[in-house]
Amino acid sequence: MVDGKTVVLDTYAILALIEDEEGADTVAAAISDEQTTVYFSVINLGELYYILLRKKGERVAEEVLRNILLEESINIVEVPWPRVKEAARIKARGGLSYADSFVLELARELKAPVLTGDPEIQTVAKELDVPVIWVGSNLTVDK
């Protein structure tokens, strides 16, 4: 449960919301809660876009992108060099995609939990002492 705090969304969480999968209600609650500040890395926005292009086509990918960019409660975070460098360090540890390393680095910087259902993130997050709010299901994400 998310209540009155800062959270970082993983691409998995947004896909769960779009697909109305298990955990979608938790993601929707975080986004709609005025007491919760929600962040989403521009790197993960790109990841979401290419996944949707492959799975749903350009029209759907563009519509979702537009809706996210218009959603005032989702703060899209740009990526300065120091974050790129730290995300690369996380990626170099192994066991995580490059995009997922940005989720964890942003969460670490903000001292915030990650909303995800991605087991790879959960494993590395534990090693980095980054809290995870689990929204897992059987959602298949082809990265």
The assigned CATH architecture is: 3-Layer(aba) Sandwich
| Adjacency order of strands in the biggest sheet | 3-2-1-4-5
Number of helices: 7
Overall geometric form = globular
Q: Which stretches are poorly predicted, pLDDT < 50 over at least 5 residues? A: 139-143
What number is the mean pLDDT? 92
Number of strands: 5
Q: Report strand %.
A: 5-15%
Tell me, what is the CATH class?
Alpha Beta
CATH H-level superfamily:
5'-nuclease
Function: Toxic component of a toxin-antitoxin (TA) system. An RNase.
Keywords: Hydrolase, Magnesium, Metal-binding, Nuclease, Toxin, Toxin-antitoxin system
Family: Belongs to the PINc/VapC protein family.
EC number: 3.1.-.-
Features:
143 residues; alpha/beta; Rossmann fold; 5-stranded parallel sheet; 7 helices; 5 strands; disordered C terminus
List the SSEs and their pairings:
Elements: E1 6-9, H1 11-18, H2 24-32, E2 37-41, H3 42-56, H4 58-70, E3 74-77, H5 81-92, H6 98-110, E4 114-116, H7 119-127, E5 132-134
Helix pairs in contact: 1-2, 1-3, 3-4, 5-6
Enzyme class: hydrolase
Family: Belongs to the PINc/VapC protein family.
Cofactor: Mg(2+)
In short:
The chain has 143 residues and is an alpha/beta fold. Helix content is 55%, strand content 13%.
Structural write-up:
The protein has 143 residues and is α/β, with parallel strands linked by helices. The protein has one domain: 5'-nuclease (Rossmann fold), CATH 3.40.50.1010. The chain contains seven helices and five strands, in the order βααβααβααβαβ. Helix 7 links the parallel strand 4 and strand 5 (132-134). Helix 1 (11-18) crosses helix 2 and helix 3 (42-56) packs antiparallel against helix 4 (58-70). The model is unreliable at 139-143 (pLDDT under 50). Residues 7-126 form the PIN domain. Belongs to the PINc/VapC protein family. Mg(2+) binds at residues 10, 100.
